[in-house]
Amino acid sequence: MKADPATQLRLLDLQAVDSNLDRLAVRRRDLPELAVIAEHTKTVDSLKADIVRVETEISDLARAQRKLDDEIDLVRARADRDRRRVDSGQVSGVRELENLQSELASLARRQGVLEDEALEKMEAVETLDGRLAALAAERDRVQAEVDVAAARRDEAFAEIDAQAAERRRERERLAPGLPAPLVTLYEKIRSTSNGVGAARLVRRRCEGCHLELSGADLREVAAAAADEVVRCEECRRILVRTAESGL
What we know:
The protein has helices spanning 5-29, 32-88, 94-174, 180-192, 215-223, and strands at 198-202, 205-206, 230-231, 238-241. By secondary structure, it is mostly helical. It is rod-shaped, with a radius of gyration of 42 Å. It starts with a helix and ends in a 6-residue tail after the last strand.
């Protein structure tokens, strides 16, 4: 393939633009804020799940507490009714009086048990309320960090995208001025060589693979016509000769 030396040098300009675009893409992909957002979002989701579980526990306890309160009211009403019968003096039989007194004692014990259970439920709800408040506060704190990281990410994206747009415009100005076959070869090599399709030969070293050419390879490159498109024997990238090549 033939291309005059000036055209080959412009190919290096195209490579510089493409390398810049690749670096911008890597920078965009590897922004530290993205890792922070991903990690903290998982934490927020976990905290939200914990909050739902605690809220469910509180709801279950509240329902159980209401059931206990209703049962306590029933026991208290039964005891009040029996007490009124005893206090009214209407119970004349000794056996009936003993039965009522025994039932009052049993109802008092039952009421005490129910009230203890209700108190336990109340204390458990208070503990869970504290846990819920702590979880909500932690969720809000971590979410705030996510929001800050997202704002920084968006700011960085805007800056990177603006630079990438400028590089793409520069590429659109450069590429049409190069021979299509040369650009096709360059693109083919670039796609399989870590984004580098053309490299400068500097002091007998290929800047693509960073290896020094052997004596035989160097003599072959030196003997090639100035408009000959030469390739590095090691990495097969297009090798562009300059005044610094050491030929």
